[in-house]
Amino acid sequence: MKTETPTLAPDWDRIRADFPLLAREVHGKPLVYFDSANTGQKPAVVIEAVDAFYRRHNANVSRAVHALGAEATEAYEGTRARLAQHLNVAREDLVLTSGTTFALNLVAYSWALPRLQPGDVVLLTRMEHHANIVPWQLICERTGATIRVADLAPDGSLDLDALYALMAPDVKLLGIAHVSNVLGTVNPVAEICREARKRGIVTVVDGSQALPHMAVDIASIGCDFYAFTGHKMCGPTGTGALWARREHLLAMPPFLGGGEMIKEVRYEGTVFAEPPHRFEAGTPNIAGHVGLGTAVGYLDGIGMDAIAAREGDLLAHLTEEMDRVEGLRILGRAPRKAAVVSFLVEGAHAHDLATLLDLEGVAVRSGHHCAHPLMAFLGVPATCRASLAFYNTHAEIEAFIAALRKVRRLLG
Ligand SMILES: Cc1ncc(COP(=O)(O)O)c(C=O)c1O
């Protein structure tokens, strides 16, 4: 597929230097940014691409025949093409959105709402983000369909036998995270989608936490819909996309109406544009998507396989060190994990831990991570989460562990 395979091993120190923000201090300490699952940092090329767009090319897309309009449209459509190549799909099947949340709501309102009926079931897993729960609840309330939930094994991986047993004839749709934002579990989505397809179940994969960490070939996953967000993969906030099988896009009514998504409007009725533009009403986040295209080019320049290997090394180091900290418990030990580690320290509230770590310059997230049902399953109100990216270093892991030990003593 598309990911370039650079011949030389990446120079990770040089790559880290591409991220200006990582050089700053917090509370007088060097920043250790371990919150990339929340949002990723941006390399200078992405920041510069957004800046250059506004300085030199700014115009609306698809509306003007003048030179700037053509440049803006070319840059915006260039991102669609670049994403398509990165994900091994056709560009016409990629709807650019403000992120995963919008993409999943688009599937919910345009695909599911007109189709689901009383008695139908939406199958979800216990590890879903609220963005892959709440839209389905809203649709179920309106259609009379219900939600069924597949449980997890104690290590935080999906219990596949249990999942397949739940795929009864009443299940019309499966919503599943490719990678859990809390546990780091990488789900075998290709196998799961194959099983679902055999049973006539439409599959919606939430790829938010997969794309930053690994090469994703949507064609080989075999899903019906794949949603993702740009800001976790070095791109600007307010960017992302939904990929869908062409047959679905052609059959789906628009989600939002307005400019850009029409062929012809009369008061008697409107002829809509072909997909993907049918689903892109209004002026989009043009500059943000130009930045996302640059981000994808940047990631491809390093190589997603090299990124996955680097993060695998960092995760192994981090896990080994955390296991040595007395009283620390890691939640999520699936055999295939991305560099996302939720943890708790005996006797300390997750928020207190994160606040004290922040004073040491370490940024980790604490809370429910937009996954209340998973917290309930784990039997905790909140966790701390250290989430890494390829720009993190082994030295930062040492600094994090030293800070953790200090904070533990303080909380004593
Ligand atoms: C697994 C998962 N799904 C969905 C989302 C929502 O992404 P966004 O807020 O960019 O729409 C996130 C973001 O945290 C996520 O981690």
TrEMBL record:
<feature type="domain" description="Aminotransferase class V">
    <location>
        <begin position="32"/>
        <end position="400"/>
    </location>
</feature>
<dbReference type="InterPro" id="IPR000192">
    <property type="entry name" value="Aminotrans_V_dom"/>
</dbReference>
<dbReference type="InterPro" id="IPR010970">
    <property type="entry name" value="Cys_dSase_SufS"/>
</dbReference>
<dbReference type="Pfam" id="PF00266">
    <property type="entry name" value="Aminotran_5"/>
</dbReference>
<keyword id="KW-0808">Transferase</keyword>
<keyword id="KW-0663">Pyridoxal phosphate</keyword>
<dbReference type="InterPro" id="IPR020578">
    <property type="entry name" value="Aminotrans_V_PyrdxlP_BS"/>
</dbReference>
<dbReference type="InterPro" id="IPR015424">
    <property type="entry name" value="PyrdxlP-dep_Trfase"/>
</dbReference>
<dbReference type="InterPro" id="IPR015422">
    <property type="entry name" value="PyrdxlP-dep_Trfase_small"/>
</dbReference>
<comment type="similarity">
    <text>Belongs to the class-V pyridoxal-phosphate-dependent aminotransferase family. Csd subfamily.</text>
</comment>
<comment type="function">
    <text>Catalyzes the removal of elemental sulfur and selenium atoms from L-cysteine, L-cystine, L-selenocysteine, and L-selenocystine to produce L-alanine.</text>
</comment>
<protein>
    <recommendedName>
        <fullName>Cysteine desulfurase</fullName>
        <ecNumber>2.8.1.7</ecNumber>
    </recommendedName>
</protein>
<dbReference type="InterPro" id="IPR015421">
    <property type="entry name" value="PyrdxlP-dep_Trfase_major"/>
</dbReference>
